[in-house]
Amino acid sequence: MSALTALSALTLADKIQRREVSAVEVVEAHIARIVESNPSTNAVVRYNFDGARREAEVADALIETRTPVGPFHGVPFTVKDCLDVEGMGSSCGLVSRRTHRATADAVVVARMREAGAIVLGKTNLPDNCWAQETDSLLFGRTNNPLDVTRTVGGSSGGEAAVIAAHGSPMGIGTDIAGSIRLPAHFTGIVGFRPTSGTLSEIGNWPAPEGRLSELEAIGPMARNVGDVAAAFDVMRGAAPELLETTSLRGRRVAFWSDDGVITSDAGVHQAVTTAVNALVSFGMVPVASAPSARRLAGLGWTAMIADDERASIARGFGNGELWNPLRECLRGESRVSSGALLYWCSSHYGSRLLRALGVDGLKWRKRLLTQLTELLGEGGVAVCPIFPTPAPTHGWSMRTLGPVSTLSYQVWVNLAGSPGLTVPIRRSRGELPIGVQIVGLPGADRDVLAAGQAIEQALAQGERT
Fold first, then answer.
1. pLDDT at 388 over 80
2. Which neighbouring-strand residues pair with 189?
3. Do residues 221 and 159 make contact, with C-beta atoms less than 8 angstroms apart?
4. Which of 73, 132, 157, 280 could form an S-S bond across to 152 if both were Cys, CB 3.0 to 4.6 Å?
5. CATH architecture of 8-297+362-464
6. Cα-to-chain-centroid distance, residue 101
């Protein structure tokens, strides 16, 4: 592994602009790392190596002429395969979209490229992004680079895997039910789900409509909070700004260690305690309390999508009602993986059952936001787990009915439309990463990022001492 692939995106950008290293060298180092790691991880499913090399040469030429450049000039990045990159395939893991090629960049991709970043390739995901493990009928399964017997989660699992393997310093994922935060936790990287609707969904497949759009967010992934914050600023069309941790002083940090139903393990409890202590050292005020509406929030999330998931099935599977892919599966002619079918069945029929029982997702959201607002106050954040354990072995979601058993750990954040940031905290006894999620009220994206940076700084200080 090259020393260059261990550096952060912003450090690489600085070194390129100072001409301490060339963009060509940086791109080649990451290409070499992908070639080395991808046979075992299956993280990158579409390569743009030749295009990246050409763009790197242009980037170096601009540096030589001292032309003003963007904040990520010459730095490579990867893109989840539901987001369009001009001239590249964009299947979202679906056999029905196997031959689709994008004619333009997704808005978030275009903004990263305008900032000087270079696309290395596109990363794996489950069929139509609809599962908590990354395994599609089209591209197969992605393995965790820290232990190939373990899952990377989903649906932004390929993105998390290539960043954790140092094949890419940063990338773009999507999160409608924990799809950025869960893979970040399983692989020990940083993943940020902004407030719903903050970043443009143009060029994302399938474009969420109706209530689905209130749960969905596109967001950046990297190995540290600074890179994620800078990429978030770029993708929303702003110049990167430094995070201000001094503003945290006097604000509340609420915390809890489980979802109110399923108990988390001791390592997860310790991670929450460590993160809270870090924020207290920056002057935050701890509050050991949780919104009760986060308990069984998977029911509220499922009820929320009742009006819109049928159209999403039709767009995603390309063959109409849910019964068609089920019938194909029974005939041995399936065009989607069994994991995706499990999640679609649970949401499709679950939403109808919940509606019949009178469960209202919008009322659940209102109650959750009311409780969260009272708990956090002005500029406060919550610290809690994203999952009750470190990364489980492959197939956990099928064995344990993952859509039902652990969904509430993640989706209460989506139900609230809140920003959520996963930050790695410690390792388990088996040396698997354990992270926590930091959550704020809708619109408090920079407060959440500042809290994440404060935790990072406190942990780094602890390592030095």
1. yes
2. none
3. yes
4. 157
5. Alpha-Beta Complex (3.90)
6. 24
Which residue in 22, 37, 179, 334 is the catalytic one?
Answer: 179
366 carries an active-site annotation: no
Q: Which of 15, 22, 37, 80 is catalytic?
A: 80
Catalytic residue among 155, 196, 397, 418: 155
The 3-state secondary structure of 339-398, one letter per residue:
HHHHHHHHHHHHHHHHHHCCCCHHHHHHHHHHHHHHHHCCCCEEEECCCCCCCCECCHHH
How far is residue 123's CA from residue 82's CA, in Å, rounded to a whole number?
Answer: 9
Chain position carrying tokens 């912003």:
10
Question: Is the omega angle on the peptide bond into residue 419 within 30 degrees of 0, that is, cis?
Answer: no
CB-based contact 235:462 (threshold 8 Å): no
Q: What is the pLDDT of residue 296?
A: 94
State yes or no: is 80 an active-site residue: yes
Judge whether 179 counts as a catalytic residue: yes
Predicted confidence (pLDDT) at residue 398 exceeds the cutoff of 90: no
* CA nearest to 310, candidates 356, 282, 344, 277: 344
Separation between Cα atoms, residue 444 and residue 446, nearest integer Å? 6
